[in-house]
Design goal:
Elements lengths: L5 E5 L3 E4 L4 H12 L4 E4 L10 H14 L7 E7 L6 H10 L2 E6 L19 H10 L3 E3 L13 H16 L5 E3 L5 H8 L5 E5 L8 H5 L16 H11 L6 E3 L8 H4 L14 H11 L6 H13 L7 E6 L8 E4 L2 E4 L9 E4 L1
Parallel strand pairs: 2-3, 3-4, 4-5, 5-6, 6-7, 7-8, 8-9
Antiparallel strand pairs: 1-10, 10-13, 11-12
Bound molecules: N-carbamoyl-L-aspartate and zinc ion (ZN).
């Protein structure tokens, strides 16, 4: 059991992270690498990371952007399109460098135009992945105009995800960044081949934080934050210790100019203060003893990877100080503001 003011856990991983490329990659990578040993790297670059060769090249760019003295293992992901080649996926997985394939319904979120419209076309890839034991990471929102944006996750589960899983019961599926109680329930009841990631920000904000008292572009992300009852269901799920849930921050940096705009883009940048926020959330629920399962144990178990060997210590003291913005050569990226003091300090 943790004491009231100190907690030592195995080093965490982030099972859903956007690092981007070029100068942005260089600026944000240390924010994750200072705390996390590994991360599942989202492939929604422009152009997207659709092939093994592209994943190898991106992996090399990430490692060369890592400051001297820091260690970090990028776990690469292929962006699934209707043209994805089955043998390329197999080679990628067997190399050990690529750990998963990402399904974006076309148009669902930032840089998802090359995603999938006709799900029959990806069936051969899904069959091969089921045979290999390779997880499919799913952005679970339908994109039909007639479906309300706040209902898109629940409708996706019924209309798309459940049929895919019935057709491919052996396929390992990660429901990414769930935002609803329906998502949490479906993940919990899905057996060993199903899990869900939960972001840091969806444990902290509901749609009022986004919209009441003026629109807050830095709280806009996809899937969009829902009602308070859904946030509470996510907190209950994340802090439960249940192996169906693990951390995927979905930390998604955008330049302030792109967010503070008449058509602001989606994404919250949480890498800088994620662990302190999570400790605060678990502490408030009196569930600190389950933090390690969520950040460090359940993810590797689902992916069939070893737990990290290093440990980190969190200690509770005066509120931490962290920068409001991360500077990049092209402008600033605002760090997620949880609107509460963060008392948990992280020591590696
Ligand atoms: C992500 C991004 O900016 O790439 N944005 C977000 O709101 N989460 C895309 C995504 O994961 O949906
Ligand atoms: Zn994402």
């Amino acid at each position: 059991m943790p004491s009231n003011s100190s907690l030592t856990i195995q080093q965490p991983d982030d099972w859903h992270l956007h690092l981007r490329d070029g100068d942005m990659l260089k600026s944000v990578l240390p924010e994750t690498a200072k705390h996390f040993a590994r991360a599942i790297i989202m492939p929604n670059l422009i152009p997207p990371v659709t092939t093994f060769d592209m994943a190898k090249a991106y992996h090399a760019r990430i490692l060369s952007a890592l400051p001297a003295g820091m260690s970090f293992e990028p776990l690469m992901v292929l962006y699934l399109t209707e043209k994805t080649d089955v043998s390329d996926v197999e080679r990628a997985y067997q190399s050990g460098l690529v750990k998963a394939v990402k399904l974006y319904p076309a148009g669902a979120t930032t840089n998802s135009d090359s995603g999938v419209t006709d799900f029959d076309k990806i069936q051969p890839v899904l069959e091969k992945m089921a045979e290999l034991g390779m997880p499919l990471c799913v952005h679970g929102e339908v994109v039909k105009h007639e479906v309300d944006i706040f209902d898109r996750e629940a409708v996706f589960i019924d209309k798309v995800l459940d049929p895919i899983r019935r057709r491919n019961p052996e396929l390992k599926v990660v429901m990414e960044h769930i935002t609803t109680k329906q998502g949490a329930e479906y993940a919990r009841e899905g057996g060993d081949n199903l899990a869900a990631t939960i972001t840091t920000h969806h444990l902290v904000i509901n749609r009022n934080h986004l919209l009441v008292g003026g629109i807050k572009p830095h709280y806009y992300c996809l899937p969009v934050a829902k009602r308070e009852e859904h946030r509470l269901a996510l907190v209950e799920a994340a802090t439960s210790g249940n192996t169906s849930y693990f951390l995927g921050t979905d930390s998604a940096p955008h330049l302030d100019g792109a967010k503070e705009s008449a058509c602001g883009c989606a994404g919250c940048f949480t890498a800088t203060n994620t662990l302190s926020i999570l400790a605060e959330v678990f502490d408030k629920e009196d569930k600190l003893e389950n933090l390690e399962a969520f950040t460090s144990l359940n993810g590797p178990t689902f992916y069939g990877l070893p737990v990290n060997s290093k440990k980190i210590t969190l200690t509770k003291a005066e509120p931490i100080e962290y920068p409001a913005k991360i500077e990049t050569p092209d402008g600033d990226v605002t760090v997620f503001d949880p609107q509460m003091p963060l008392h948990w300090h992280v020591k590696i």
